[in-house]
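Dear colleague,

Following up on yesterday's call, I've attached the two folding results inline so they're easy to grep. Please treat them as preliminary; we haven't cross-checked anything against experimental data yet. The first protein's sequence and C-alpha cells come first.
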Amino acid sequence: MDLISREEARAAGAKRFFTGAPCPYGHTAERFVINNRCVECAKASGRATFAKDPDRIRQLQRESYLRHREKQLLEAKRYRESEKGREKIKAWAARNADRFPGYVAKYRENHRDELLQRGREAYKKNREKHLAYAKVYREKKRASGEKTVRARKFEPDREMRNLIFRRFRAKKMGAAGDHTVYDVARLLESQKHLCVYCKTNVKYGYHVDHITPLARGGSNGPENIQILCPRCNVRKRDKTHDEFIDFLRNVGF
C-alpha cells in the first residue's frame, strides 16, 4: 500500500490516506481523510452497532439506499471500473475459484422464470434502446468475424440440447414434472456411469430414459428418469421398466 499523507490525499480528492503509523488501538490501516478515523476501527464500531439492533440498522440502510440509489449505483460503477476495484474483483475470484465456476449457471437454472419475466419487462420498457444496442453489437461482431451470443445459442452442449428436446416432448404430451442438467449429472454419479440394465460404461455416450414412458403417463421429473446406454434405450422404446426386464429375459439376456 502506497504511503500518502492526509494533506496529499485531500489535495488529490481521495477519501482515505495511509501513513503506515498505527492507530491508538494498534491497527496499521488506512484512515478517512474527513475525520482521521482508522478504517478498521470504523468497521469494528459498525459491527458492534449492528449486533445491538440488526433489524433497525437494516431498515435504515434500505431507506438510505432508496434515497440515494442513483448516486450509489454511479459510485459502485466507478469503483468497479477503477484499477483498485478491478484488482479487488480479481482477488475475490481467485479466493473463490473452487465455487465460482458454475455459480451463474446454477442461479439462472434455479431462477429461470423470474429472470425471463424481468428480461421481458426491461425490454418493453427500453425497447428502442435495446434495438439500437443490438444493431451496434451485431455490426461490431460482424466486423470482427466473431459469432454473436444469439448465434452461439444454436450450438449448445449436447446435454443441454437434449434437455430442451425432452422438455419440448413432455410439454407436447402434457407430462408433469421437470428435471435439470444437474439432475442428470447426479444420476450419472449415482449410477457410476453405468447403464441400468447391461452395466455398460456410458462415460462417452448415454441416453436419458423415462422409466415410465411419457406416452404412457410418465412424468418428466427426476424421479422418473434413468441413464441407459444407447442400445438399451433404443430396445426399450415405450416399454415400462418391468416390461423391459421381461423382454430381456425372453431374449436370453
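Below is the second protein, in the same order (sequence, then structure):
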Amino acid sequence: MTLKTVLFFIPIINKEVLMKYITGDLLDVTEGIICHGCNLSGGFGSGVAGAIARMYPSVRENYHANYRDKFLGDISGLEVIDGLYILNCYTQQGYGRDKNVQYASYDAVRDSMVKVIDMANTLGIKQVHIPRIGAGLGGLNWEIVENVLRNLEIHYGMEFVVHSL
C-alpha cells in the first residue's frame, strides 16, 4: 500500500482522537519529547531548528555530528535536560524559502514519527510535542500531514501535541 493510499483512503472518523492543539511556544515544554523536521543538507538555523539551536546549542551540535550519516525518515537527538529529549526528524533533503517548492516528504514525516513513537514507548512517554512538522518551511500541506499523524496516533496509541504561536 502506498502512502497516498493511506493518506486518502483511510478516513479519520473522529477528529478528536488523541491529537491536541496548543497555542504557545514549543520550547516551553520541560519534559517529554519535542521533535521537529530538519534537512539532510547541513542547514540548522531557520524556523523551529533555529529557535532550538539558540536555546539548546547541543541539539545543533548533535545535528551537525549526525546528518551526513542519516537518510530521509531517520531521527537523531539527545536529552537536553533531565527528562526532556529533542529529536531531529530528517524530513527533507534540502531547504529553501520558495513557497512553490515542497522540500519535505510525507513519507519521511511518517517514517520519522514511527521512530519517534518507538523511542517514546521505550522511555514510557505518552505524548510527543511537535510544531506543524513539514508544513512550514518544508512546504507540505498541513491537512495531509495531520491525517498521517492521526493515523499513527490511532495505530500506535501515541498522542501528538501540536504547538502553534
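For the second protein, one point worth flagging: The mean pLDDT is 91.

Best wishes,
A.L.
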